[in-house]
Amino acid sequence: MFASFVEQDEEVKEIFYQKIKEKMEKEKQKHLDKISEGFFGWLLEPIADIAYTWRRDSEKKQGNSGENSVSWALHFWLPSDAVIVNDLVLEPMPDDYIQIDHLVLNYNGIFVLETKSWDGAFLGSKNKWRMRQGNKWVEVKSPTKQNERHVRLFKTWLEENLPEIFEKVKENIYPIVVFKRAKWIKAENCNMPVVIGGMEAVGEIKKIKGDNISKEQINKIVEAIKKAKPLDHEEWNKKHSKEKNNYQLFQGKNSSGKMYIRIKGTKEDAEKVADEYKNQNYTIIDIKQDKKEKDVWFFYYSK
């Protein structure tokens, strides 16, 4: 028997893709607006439009090609209890989407796989990646950082939708980066395994021992994935705006992806909230007062 496949509803995925496309168009326009403000911007804007679209399309093709062979290796060589979800799309936070190439739910853990079909030789050190071009090493987008984000936001989604399961499995969620066509890879001090091909990915999954996740938990996660839809932003904001003591607290992200907390209350209230986050090992950037709303304070935070 082989591991089984589970798929998201295609109509729902199309809605996700449309929303992602709309977000990319907004990002693209911001990019072009910055260029058009400069000298000769009117001349450079059409060229930048083509270059930006090509770059994003190229990244997408590189990421998508080769995924099928990895998927079939997972299917044939993982145990029959394992469940594989290919091309999983989620919106854990408003306008913050993730596209996971392969999510594997197995008795020993949950595995988030990022697949790359890049040709050539690659060197990764502390999550900074370079590619060999001629006699030079050229920096490329970090697949380990990309997958680190996927894991973080998948945990956010899981905690939001299945909090009781999240508490039990949160220590058993593992990232893996899979290069399909690379000729040579050296990864040093990266925060996740980096392998070549589907069989090496299977090997990494099998390294984790123990019955850490039950069949019932796997089934509940699968059902939640099947039902996953884009967020209702208004409802999400209502849910995450909570009264606490005599102040209101709001969580969110800015357009650059930085996480922030807004507190409607006093500076002392904001300082108390910041201390709570510090106690949870978050890094806090200085508390500031909103320029327009004098009773609102905010700070950015990160892990």
UniProtKB/TrEMBL annotation:
Domain NERD: 62-177
InterPro entries reported in the protein's UniProt record: NERD
Pfam families, sorted: NERD
Protein's recorded name: Nuclease
Lineage of the organism: Bacteria, Bacillati, Bacillota, Clostridia, Thermoanaerobacterales
